[in-house]
Amino acid sequence: MNKIQQMLKSSIQKSITQPQLFLLVMAFVMPFVFQVWMTLLNNFVVEKAAFTGAEIGMLQSIREIPGFLAFTAIYILIVIKEQKFAILSLGLLSIGVAVTGYFPSEYGLFITTFIMSVGFHYYETIQQSLTLQWLDKKETAHFMGKQLAVKSFASILAFVGIWFLMEQFSVSYQTTYLIAGILGFIVVLWMAWHFPQFEQPHVQHKKFLMRKRYWLYYLLTFLSGARRQIFVVFAGFMMVEQFGYSVGEISILFGVNYIFNLFFAAKIGKWVGKIGERKALTFEYVGLIFVFTGYAFVENAEIAAGLYIIDHMFFALAIAIKTYFQKIADHKDIAATASVSFTINHIAAVIIPVLLGMVWLYSHTLVFFVGTGFAVLSLVGSRLIPDNPSQEEYIRG
Question: What is the reported pTM?
Answer without folding.
Answer: 0.78
